[in-house]
Amino acid sequence: MDLLTILQILDSSVRLAVPLLLACLAGLYSERAGIFDIGLEGKMLAAAFMAAAIAYTSGSAWVGLLAGIGASLVLSAVHGVASITFRGNQLISGVAINFLAAGLTVVIAQSWFAQGGRTPTLQGDARFEPITLPFAESLQSVPVIGPIYYELISGHSVLVYIAFLLVPLTWWVLYRTRFGLRLRAVGENPASVDTAGISVVQLRYIAVIICGVLCGLAGAYLSTALQAGFTKDMSAGRGFIALAALIFAKWRPWHALYATLLFGFLQALALRPDLLENTLGFKVNGQLLDALPYILTVVILAGFVGKAIPPRAGGEPYVKER
Amino acid sequence: MDVMPKWAEVVLVPLISLLLASILSAIVILAIGENPWDALMLMIDGALGSTYGWGYTLYYATNFIFTGLAVAIAFHARMFNIGGEGQAMLGGLGVALVCLYIPWPHWSLALLGASVSAAIFGAAWATIPAFLQAKRGSHIVITTIMFNFIAAALLNFLLIGALKPTGSMEPATGKFPETTHLPSFQDMFSTADNVMFRGAPANISFFVAVAACFALWFLIWRTRLGYEIRAFGHSESAAKYAGISPTKIIMIAMMISGALAGMMAINNVMGEAERLVLNAVEGAGFIGIAVALMGRSHPFGVFLAALLFGFLYQGGAELALWTSIPRELIVVIQALVILFTGALDNMVRMPLERIFLAFRKPAKGA
């Protein structure tokens, strides 16, 4: 395998990892605050649809992005109301949100565009086009570094760079700010946060809102950058892979990056079975590659490779006085 | 403290939740430019207006009874089994293997064998998450979700590989032999001059599902094991103190749950398709969640809720056929039912409790 092929695989790993990364960080904020969120998938899907639909009608990918975030935030609000205000079951709420998005996106898409539950193909400014970083073309002839810079680092859409910048930002927010400390505390021991005079409800709502914004980014990336338009069920389980990555990363931002890159790499490999066969000399089963993220997560959860301990108050509604 | 009388708890709360879900669904239908009342009439006519419609409604209901009971028994042990989908897929595999490779002399024996096999396969698929929950503390919701995807990959692998008949391009097994054909409602209820349920897929497994409702009711409320499951569900620490082993309860409850989800396959794989195809479950495992929530985890409630969802499914298919409302509207209704009966339960309950309290006070003073 030559350098170019390796770079191509890595390049497509990055592209496929980005939605996972954004959704994974979304889940990280929510779960660190003690709100389990298995509705990542649904929020991504809703955002993907709304972003594509509005980008198509307005002709601007940025307006689409805002609309996508808006759609995701509406579902976040439902999750917040159900699990924070009414102290309902967060898991059931997440399941409901997934179905709500799966159904509504197709119903609305059919009503607006009448193309069998999809949006028209996006063109021009309605999509996030790849950005060529400075000097990428002039440096292309430099051996090794040139192609790496040109193929791998340059030439992604702006959302890709935003996603990668969000990793250090999340780390900084979580571990270096007062808000981050409170956020982590509210996921571990909400009563102590409450005793300190800080509103548990408010903190958790903020976490759920951040989660909604990030899921919105992830969904908009799917339909307006990775692909050119919305298709039915286009999130294709990515929300659940992101959830798996979150456990794999044990709820830490940098590890979330590594986990999603790994899962993105697996997805990229599954797209190129020929390459794998040539390199390894034997046929690797495609279904096995598909299932690998889930299998790895189960192994991690089983505690065979270090123990994954979720935030202690995760999934439990906070009641002020028992 | 029981603020509400039992009938309100059992009947009023689910009904109000259903009403809220229907109102929102009606708004969705209005928003896409159709008339909700016409849509409802069309659904009623399509699903209940003929024996053909009933045949489909009851066929879907059979699936949902099995998956609903599966979720319900897990709820009694305070566990959330989202893995019904994967367990039902594996149940399909169990049915297919038994039907394809064992020469059954008669359908009744084949039904028995297939039921046992489906139950074992489904239970086996639930055992691993159950074990990980009981012994390693891995969250059952996450592991069962993961196992859904692993099951899909496994079935995909088998159906384009080992189980596909040679020469076939379709990812499906060959057709089951004629002796495994289950009597459909058409076979059972038609007379020579009056054909009922013509071409509808409802079959004898409906009665197996009804029997499963009774069996589960007996298990939960009339046996020691059922008592232990409920005790564990109410309070794990109290159950432990009473000498009930959490490991045992988690394992057994999940195995029963998986077995029930797996047994759905005798209806959709053996009764209807008569071969195993990709995506045979079609989301019925997830509808089980809505059914169990709606039915308040009681077998009779599950039966009624399954009928309701069977009606919605068949009615939704009719809607998609005759109007511009796509089938996915049913998914929206399903989501709203889960939302209101499951997650927003307190939203419905709190005002009701206040009303009942207000009515009770004067009675006490008198």
Give an overview in words.
Chain A: Keywords: Cell membrane, Membrane, Transmembrane, Transmembrane helix. Chain A: One of its GO terms (molecular function) is transmembrane transporter activity. Chain A: The chain crosses the membrane at residues 6-28, 35-56, 91-113, 158-175, 205-222, 256-271, 291-310. Chain A: This is Nucleoside ABC transporter membrane protein. Chain A: It is a multi-pass membrane protein. The complex is a heterodimer of chains A (322) and B (366). Chain A is an all-alpha fold. Chain A has a single domain (3-127, 136-301), classed as ABC transporter involved in vitamin B12 uptake, BtuC (Orthogonal Bundle). Helices cover 70% and strands 0% of the residues of chain A. Chain A has 13 helices and no strands. Chain A has helices at residues 3-32, 40-58, 61-85, 90-113, 145-153, 158-176, 178-188, 190-195, 200-226, 238-248, 253-271, 273-280, 286-301. In chain A, helix 6 packs antiparallel against helix 11 and helix 10 (238-248) crosses helix 13. The longest helix of chain A is centred in the N-terminal third of the chain and has 30 residues, at 3-32. The model of chain A has no long low-confidence stretch (mean pLDDT 89). Chain B has 366 residues and is an all-alpha fold. Chain B has a domain at 61-311: ABC transporter involved in vitamin B12 uptake, BtuC (Orthogonal Bundle), CATH 1.10.3470. Chain B is built from 16 helices and no strands. In chain B, helix 3 (51-76) packs antiparallel against helix 11. The radius of gyration of chain B is 22 Å and the shape is globular. The two termini of chain B are 21 Å apart. The relative contact order of chain B is 0.20.
